[in-house]
Amino acid sequence: MYLIAGLGNPGREYAGTRHNVGFEVVDALCAKYDIKLNKEKFRAVFGDGRIGGEKVIVAKPQTYMNLSGESIREIADWYKIDNEHIIIIYDDISLPVGKLRIREKGSAGGHNGIKNIIYQLNTDVFPRIKVGTGMPRNPDYDIKDYVLGHFSKEEIDILIKSAVRAVYAVEEIIKVDAKSAMNKYNG
User: Fold this and answer.
1) Which of 24, 34, 61, 127 could form a cystine bridge with 71, CB 3.0-4.6 A?
2) DSSP string of 65-133, one letter each residue
């Protein structure tokens, strides 16, 4: 069994922001596999289905970004999901808009949601898909304001294609492994 979690912040005011790219990819994944996020427990909205012949739990933690690990740990503990089968999808400002970076493990890289997941799981070994949201052009721009800001029309067009590629990367991780997904979809 796999847990696929997209990171973001709950609430209409955060919809479509850079920090909610993980939620957007989860929505695309659910649409492709007809998975309904119709359950509420573990401080998340979630649903279940099958991808590549494997049972999956797809979740959007509702704890706000910085406490995402609490929800993910609760789900993983309840369903007894190994860390290597927890796939996290989230935004990364250090990557250009729309670029994907898939990793099997690693540090938080300054991302507070990932920091909390590493703390809660007591490991940095879990596959992750980072979706580039770009850096602010002005170096003095407040990062918090930037990640809670919205994309331009041009960026949205790029991100739609990236969300599709991220869904394929999730499939590849489940069907083959993270290394294969890295080889096919990084970039």
Assistant:
1) 61
2) GGGHHHHHHHHHHHHT--GGGEEEEEEETTS-TT-EEEEEE---TT-HHHHHHHHHHT-SEEEEEEEE-
